[in-house]
Write a structure and sequence with these properties.
It is built from twelve helices and 14 strands. It is α/β, with parallel strands linked by helices. It has two domains: about 210 residues, Spore Coat Polysaccharide Biosynthesis Protein SpsA, Chain A (Alpha-Beta Complex), CATH 3.90.550; about 80 residues, no CATH class. α5 links the parallel β3 and β4. The longest helix is centred in the first third of the chain and has 28 residues.
Length: about 375
């Protein structure tokens, strides 16, 4: 009996090799998940996530020297006797060059430029009030500017506060600033980030036509780092809305209707490497900076010129087909056609945004 008991005990005890293997694999798996967990999650996204409902797309008709009355009719809208007022409504961080381009493009059509900036990033890092200290640069629009400062919150070292909370509070504060700008029922309000720029002919059409949907998302051509690296037409968060007392500032999906090819979205389109690191550590997706090496200037410069991903991430897609299609670096374009006219008129000043201009300054020019 004793012999049988010893044999049973021996069979039930795990082999030492298996135990050692598990002991060695466990930390390897933990480190692997920490370093590549985001990639693993994104790669299998088509299995665990579903795409949002598709937009109802409105065709966009435009050509030079075609009357706005004719264009309204092509969209099944009617011409107005006078144009609507337009309020351009943005929160601002440090995108001074894109802001200058944006406001020069939209100035002929906009009644008020409503802009708010904060003394902290969304992640609670203290930052200068870049617009306030550079306001003279925008003297051409001074009479139209309605400016506000949002008091941010300084994050304590090691805190894990959700940056989306602070972003939401700042966007919510825009409602009061927009109201103080004098907006009225029936006016048009643009809700977008600084780098999401509607084309001038889009605004002219929407302000002169009756029958426009009350909330209209704008499909913007998406670029990365400059207009040398076109990505796709996936940008949809910008909206133009006909204002009512119920209108609230948001930067999310608010309608099922989107207006095709309505402008440009230039992400991380900065003049200096310093500006890149400020955004990388300060915006709501700062958790994508997995290692300090991501903020190395030489690394960022190399990635910009190659059209690669700053955060070493896989494409955020809902199908394996689309994911595979977008893997790798962004294909370069030599075209500088159908870009903001102010950019082309001042190409020498904004060479970094055009083909062949991928080299950046180290620090931001004040």
């Amino acid at each position: 009996m004793a012999t049988r008991i010893r044999r049973l005990t021996t069979r039930r005890s795990p082999p030492k090799l298996l135990f050692l293997a598990l002991l060695m694999l466990t930390p390897v798996c933990v480190i692997g998940l920490y370093n590549y967990g985001q990639k693993i999650s994104y790669f299998f996204r088509p299995l665990w996530d579903k795409p949002p409902l598709p937009f109802r797309r409105l065709p966009h008709y435009y050509a030079e020297n075609v009357s706005v009355e004719h264009l309204c009719r092509l969209h099944n809208w009617s011409i107005r006797s006078q144009p609507r007022r337009i309020f351009d409504n943005i929160i601002f961080s440090n995108e001074l060059d894109l802001l200058e381009i944006r406001w020069h493009e939209l100035n002929p059509y906009v009644s008020k430029f409503v802009i708010m900036e904060s003394n902290t990033t969304f992640t609670g890092i203290r930052k200068p009030l870049f617009f306030a200290s550079n306001r003279a640069r925008f003297a051409f629009a001074e009479e139209k500017i309605v400016y506000g400062v949002f008091p941010g919150r300084i994050a304590s070292p090691g805190s894990l506060k959700d940056p989306f909370v602070l972003e939401s509070l700042q966007r919510g504060a825009m409602n009061g600033l927009l109201h103080s700008a004098g907006i009225s029922n029936g006016d048009l309000v643009i809700m977008s980030d600084t780098d999401e720029v509607p084309s001038p002919h889009t605004l002219k059409l929407l302000q002169w036509c009756d029958g426009v949907p009350p909330i209209l998302h704008l499909e913007l051509k998406h670029y990365m780092y400059s207009f040398e690296f076109p990505v796709d037409y996936s940008s949809w968060r910008a909206t133009v809305q006909i204002y009512t007392p119920q209108t609230r500032y948001r930067h999310s999906r608010q309608s099922d209707v989107i207006f095709s090819d309505a402008g440009w979205h230039c992400s991380f389109c900065f003049r200096s490497l310093e500006e890149f690191t400020l955004k990388m550590t300060g915006y709501s997706h700062a958790d994508r900076v997995k290692r300090k090496a991501f903020l190395n200037y030489s690394r960022i410069q190399r990635i910009i010129c190659r059209g690669e991903d700053l955060f070493d991430m896989l494409p955020e897609e809902y199908s394996f087909k689309e994911m595979i299609k977008k893997m790798g670096s962004i294909a370069r374009s030599d075209s500088a056609v159908h870009l903001p006219s102010y950019l082309i008129q001042n190409a020498d000043r904004f060479r970094f945004l055009l083909p062949g201009g991928c080299k950046r300054n180290i620090v931001q020019l004040k």
